[in-house]
Automatic annotation (TrEMBL):
<dbReference type="InterPro" id="IPR004046">
    <property type="entry name" value="GST_C"/>
</dbReference>
<protein>
    <recommendedName>
        <fullName>Glutathione S-transferase</fullName>
    </recommendedName>
</protein>
<dbReference type="Pfam" id="PF13417">
    <property type="entry name" value="GST_N_3"/>
</dbReference>
<dbReference type="GO" id="GO:0006749">
    <property type="term" value="P:glutathione metabolic process"/>
</dbReference>
<dbReference type="InterPro" id="IPR010987">
    <property type="entry name" value="Glutathione-S-Trfase_C-like"/>
</dbReference>
<dbReference type="InterPro" id="IPR040079">
    <property type="entry name" value="Glutathione_S-Trfase"/>
</dbReference>
<dbReference type="GO" id="GO:0004364">
    <property type="term" value="F:glutathione transferase activity"/>
</dbReference>
<feature type="domain" description="GST N-terminal">
    <location>
        <begin position="1"/>
        <end position="50"/>
    </location>
</feature>
<dbReference type="InterPro" id="IPR036282">
    <property type="entry name" value="Glutathione-S-Trfase_C_sf"/>
</dbReference>
<dbReference type="InterPro" id="IPR004045">
    <property type="entry name" value="Glutathione_S-Trfase_N"/>
</dbReference>
<feature type="domain" description="GST C-terminal">
    <location>
        <begin position="56"/>
        <end position="184"/>
    </location>
</feature>
<dbReference type="InterPro" id="IPR036249">
    <property type="entry name" value="Thioredoxin-like_sf"/>
</dbReference>
<comment type="subunit">
    <text>Homodimer.</text>
</comment>
<dbReference type="Pfam" id="PF00043">
    <property type="entry name" value="GST_C"/>
</dbReference>
């Protein structure tokens, strides 16, 4: 199995990934080019139990719902970062910032009902949204006064070993890039 994360100019053959997106997973004859599908595939294939991605259809629906929400969050971030990184647009619009902050409102509401984003135990939704919020906070920091449950969840999640090992180093570098390209 090979996980490739190519540079923007080297996305691999169009026959493998016509969307030219990252990440991309190749597992023998299977190519997947969506991070949420990669997460669910790897969890199904290698997971020791179903706690991260439940077999129970109702619990799984809650995880899937939050994974789809994560896509919305990603595109709200991308609406700000793509013009900043590639077109020199240093200031997001007020609407873009308001739309992005609305994500914290959504997350606060979810975390008011369960300990984690989709359930009372950590799931793929938490892992996926953690990476997204980790990036988002460089544009709009988490206001612990307005969003105490989000702040508490984020503090817990960022202390997990997988975050420290896999997400934190890239998040720090992304934070530097965001700060150098955006006036927020």
């Amino acid at each position: 199995m090979l996980v490739t994360v190519p540079s923007r100019s080297a996305f691999g053959p169009i026959s493998k990934n016509p969307l030219h997106t990252v990440p991309m997973l190749e597992d023998n004859d299977l190519t997947i080019h969506d991070s949420h599908v990669i997460l669910t595939y790897l969890t199904e294939k290698y997971g020791k139990d179903d706690s991260l991605y439940p077999k129970d259809i109702k619990k799984r629906a809650m995880v899937d719902q939050k994974l789809f929400l994560d896509t919305l969050i990603f595109y709200r971030i991308r609406a700000i970062t793509t013009p900043a990184f590639f077109e020199g647009v240093r200031k997001p619009t007020e609407k873009q910032l308001k739309d992005l902050e609305e994500v914290y409102v959504f997350l606060e509401a979810f975390l008011s009902k369960t300990k984690f984003i989709a359930d009372n135990n950590m799931t793929l939704a938490d892992i996926s949204i953690l990476a997204t919020v980790s990036a988002m906070r460089y544009i709009i920091p988490i206001d612990g006064t307005k969003y105490p449950k989000v702040q508490s969840w984020f503090n817990y999640m960022k202390n997990q070993s997988f975050y420290k090992k896999c997400t934190e180093p890239a998040s720090i570098e992304l934070g530097k890039l965001v700060k150098s390209r955006l006036d927020v």
